[in-house]
Design brief:
With 598 residues, this protein is mostly beta strands. It has 4 domains: 224 residues, Clam (outer membrane lipoprotein receptor (LolB), chain A); 135 residues, Cathepsin D, subunit A, domain 1 (Beta Barrel); 136 residues, Beta Barrel (Cathepsin D, subunit A, domain 1), CATH 2.40.70; 66 residues, PDZ domain (Pdz3 Domain, Roll), CATH 2.30.42. It contains 12 helices and 40 strands. The strands form 4 sheets. It has a 13-stranded antiparallel β-sheet, covered by helices on one side. It is globular, with a radius of gyration of 26 Å. It starts with 15 loop residues before the first helix and ends in a 5-residue tail after the last strand.
C-alpha cells in the first residue's frame, strides 16, 4: 500500500534558503511560496486530513496526521483489511493485512521520516541531508513547469513540477527504491490562508501503484496528542495447545527437492500448505477458499514474481499446524491453477509472512521435519552459524558474498531456484563479461517470461562457501526486481542442505550443524523448460543452442518416458555426457546428450 502523498507537497520547504541562493531557482520558489499562502504557509506546523481512497480495485478511507517534522501517522481502511503506518521520534511501525505489527527498518524509517520532515514549514530548509538542484523545464499537459528536484541520495528523489506562470504545484514525480511514481494535484482550496489540494491521483509503473484520493476535510495546525503517534496495537494470531511453546515436529514433503509441503487443517478441513517465506501475505486459491466456506471479497491488482494479476481478499482464515493455531488471518485469494500446472503438484495454500512474523520456523531438512516455535523460548543449538538479517517492507533480507561481491538477498523459500539476481546486480559492467549465458522460462504468480541463466563460481553465506551455483538473471517484471534495495533472492536449493531455523522475530537465520557443503546444486543440462502432464512432461521452452535444441525437440512436444523410466523431472539434472533416449507422445524418439550449456 503506497503512503498518501498529499502531505508531500510541503516537501520543498526543506530547500527554500538553498533555492533562494540559487538565481535559477529563486523565481519558481517565490511564486510557489506566494501561491501556497506566503506567511500562513510557512507557519503551518501540523496537518490532519481525511478522505476517500480508491486503489487496486478497492475503495475505503484514509486518514493522515503529521506534526513537528518528526511524527507521522496514516490509517487506511479498505473494508476487507486495514493498514496503519506510524513514525514517532526515530521509531516506526506498520501493520500487514492481518494486523501484525512490523517494525520499520532503518531504510523504511528514513523514508517515512522524510515524509514527516518535508510536510511542515517549521522544518529548517536544507538540513537532514537534502540535496537540491534545478532540472530542465518541461510541460505537464499544456502547462509549462519549472522542475525543482529534492533528493536524498540517488535512491530517493522528488521532482516538483511548479507552474511557471503562477507557482501552482501541478505534480510531484518521485523515484523511491527504484520505483517511479507521479502524484498529480487538483481541486485546490484555501484552509486558514493556505492552499491545499483536495484531490490527488497517483500513477506508477504497474497498475498496483495507482490510486486516487478525494479529501473531505483538511485541518491546518490542529492540536495533536502524543497518543495519536503511539505504536499500533498488534493483532495476535498464534497460539499453542496446552500453553505449549511449539507445534511439535511435523513431517513434510520436499516435492521435486524444491517445494516444502506441510500437512495442515484450514477451518477444520485437512489440506497441505506450501511454505513461502517470500510471500508478504498468505495466499489461497480462490475456488478452494469458496469450497471451504470462505468468502472472497474485492478485486485488486496484486504483484508476484511473474508480474501482476487479479486477486481478492479472504478474511477469517484459520490454520492448524500440529498443536499450533494460526487464526483469523486475512489472506490474498488468486487463481492458483496456472501455478499448480507448472509445479505438477496441488497447491491451494501458500503460507507466508503471518507464520514467520510470530514464530521461529525450525526446518530440519535432513530428517524432513518442521516445527513452529515460540521465539521467546527458542534456544540456539550449540555450534550454530548465526546469519544476521534485517526486515524491510515485511521481507527478510540477508547479505551474502557472490564471487566476492556483497549482495542483499531476499530470503525466499518459495523460490525453487538457488539464486535469482536482479538487474541492479547483474547489469554491472564487469559481472557478465565473458560469462557464458543461456535462457530459460521463469516466473510464477503473474505470468511466465524468458530470462537469462548463468553459473556463479561461488556463493558464501554465514561463513559457508558453496561452489558452482546456477543463477537466474531476471528482468524488471516484479516490484522486488525493480527495487533499488535488493540484489536478488536466495531460494530453497541453497538452504535445503541444512538444518535451518528462520528466526524472523530476532532478525536472524541459524544454520544448525552438521553443515552439508558437499552436495552439488542440481543444474539443468537440457535447456528445456517443462510442465508436468498426466502422461509425462510438456516442453514449454527450448533454449537456443542447448542440448534439447540440438536433439530436435520443440515447444509443444510431450515427453512420456526417458530411458524407459516414468514420470520424473530429475533426468534434466544428470551428469554431463550422459545420453538419454526420450520417447514422445506421438511415438517419435529423440536422443539427447546432457551438457553444461551455460
Amino acid at each position: 500500500m503506497n503512503r498518501s502523498l498529499m502531505v508531500e507537497m510541503m516537501y520543498v520547504l526543506l530547500a527554500m534558503p538553498a533555492l533562494a541562493r540559487a538565481d535559477e531557482l529563486s523565481g519558481s520558489v517565490a511564486r510557489y511560496e506566494a501561491w501556497r499562502g506566503g506567511r500562513a504557509f510557512m507557519q503551518a506546523t501540523a496537518i490532519h486530513a481525511e478522505g476517500k481512497l480508491a486503489t487496486s480495485g478497492l475503495t475505503g478511507v484514509v486518514e493522515t496526521w503529521a506534526s513537528g517534522g518528526s511524527r507521522f501517522r496514516q490509517d487506511v481502511d479498505l473494508g476487507v483489511f486495514n493498514q496503519h503506518t506510524v513514525v514517532a521520534d526515530n521509531t516506526g511501525w506498520s501493520t500487514n493485512m492481518s494486523g501484525q505489527v512490523e517494525k520499520l527498518s532503518p531504510a523504511d524509517l528514513g523514508e517515512a521520516l522524510h515524509d514527516g520532515l518535508l510536510l511542515l514549514a517549521e522544518v529548517f530548509p536544507g538540513r537532514n541531508g537534502a540535496e537540491l538542484s534545478a532540472q530542465p523545464a518541461e510541460k505537464r499537459g499544456d502547462t509549462p513547469c519549472d522542475v525543482v528536484r529534492v533528493g536524498f541520495g540517488s535512491a530517493r528523489t522528488y521532482d516538483y513540477l511548479i507552474a511557471h506562470a503562477d507557482g501552482e504545484l501541478i505534480a510531484i514525480r518521485s523515484r523511491v527504491k527504484g520505483k517511479l511514481r507521479v502524484t498529480a494535484y487538483a481541486d485546490w482550496r484555501t484552509i486558514n490562508g493556505v492552499r491545499f489540494p483536495f484531490r490527488e491521483t497517483v500513477t506508477g509503473e504497474v497498475p498496483s501503484d495507482a490510486s486516487s484520493t478525494d479529501y473531505r476535510t483538511i485541518e491546518v495546525n490542529p492540536s495533536l496528542s502524543a497518543d495519536i503517534f503511539a505504536m499500533p496495537r498488534a493483532a495476535k494470531h498464534i497460539s499453542f495447545a496446552d500453553a505449549g511453546a511449539s507445534s511439535g515436529w511435523l513431517a513434510f514433503e520436499l516435492f521435486d527437492r524444491t517445494r516444502l509441503f506441510i500437512p495442515a487443517r484450514i477451518n477444520g478441513h485437512p489440506t497441505t500448505v506450501l511454505l513461502d517465506s517470500g510471500a508478504t501475505s498468505t495466499v489461497l486459491d480462490s475456488q478452494f477458499a469458496t469450497s471451504n466456506g470462505l468468502k472472497v471479497e474485492g478485486e485488486m491488482t496484486a504483484e508476484g514474481t511473474g508480474g501482476t494479476s487479479t486477486a481478492g481478499v479472504v478474511r477469517g482464515v484459520n490454520l492448524e499446524l500440529g498443536t499450533l493455531s494460526l487464526h483469523d488471518v486475512t489472506a490474498v485469494a488468486i487463481d492458483a491453477a496456472p501455478i499448480e500446472r507448472q509445479l505438477g503438484h496441488t497447491a491451494k495454500i501458500f503460507l507466508g509472512a503471518e507464520i514467520f512474523q510470530d514464530t521461529a520456523v525450525d526446518i530440519d531438512f535432513p530428517h524432513r521435519r518442521i516445527a513452529f516455535r515460540d521465539p521467546a523460548t527458542l534456544k540456539v543449538p550449540s555450534g550454530s552459524r548465526v546469519i544476521p538479517s534485517v526486515m524491510e517492507d515485511g521481507q527478510q533480507i540477508l547479505t551474502a558474498s557472490l564471487e566476492g561481491r556483497p549482495a542483499r538477498l531476499l530470503l525466499d523459500l518459495g523460490n525453487a531456484g538457488a539464486l535469482a539476481l536482479f538487474p541492479r546486480f547483474w547489469e554491472q559492467q564487469d559481472f557478465l563479461g565473458q560469462r557464458r549465458t543461456s535462457t530459460a522460462l521463469g516466473g510464477g504468480f503473474g505470468g511466465m517470461h524468458t530470462e537469462k541463466v548463468a553459473m556463479l563460481r561461488n556463493l558464501s553465506i554465514g561463513g559457508v562457501d558453496l561452489p558452482r551455483v546456477p543463477v537466474k538473471l531476471v528482468g524488471n517484471e516484479s516490484a522486488d526486481a525493480r527495487s533499488s534495495r535488493l540484489d536478488g533472492n536466495i531460494g530453497m536449493p541453497v538452504f535445503s542442505r541444512f538444518h535451518l531455523i528462520v528466526d524472523r522475530p530476532h532478525e536472524r537465520l541459524l544454520l544448525v550443524p552438521p553443515l552439508n557443503v558437499d552436495t552439488r546444486f542440481d543444474t539443468d543440462r537440457t535447456g528445456l523448460t517443462v510442465q508436468p502432464t498426466a502422461a509425462g512432461f510438456k516442453i514449454i521452452y527450448v533454449a537456443p543452442g542447448a542440448p534439447g535444441d540440438k536433439a530436435g525437440l520443440k515447444v509443444g512436444d510431450e515427453v512420456v518416458s526417458v530411458d524407459g523410466a516414468g514420470k520424473s523431472a530429475q533426468w534434466r539434472f544428470g551428469p554431463a555426457g550422459r545420453k538419454l533416449l526420450l520417447r514422445l507422445s506421438d511415438g517419435r524418439r529423440r536422443e539427447l546428450t546432457l551438457e553444461d550449456y551455460f
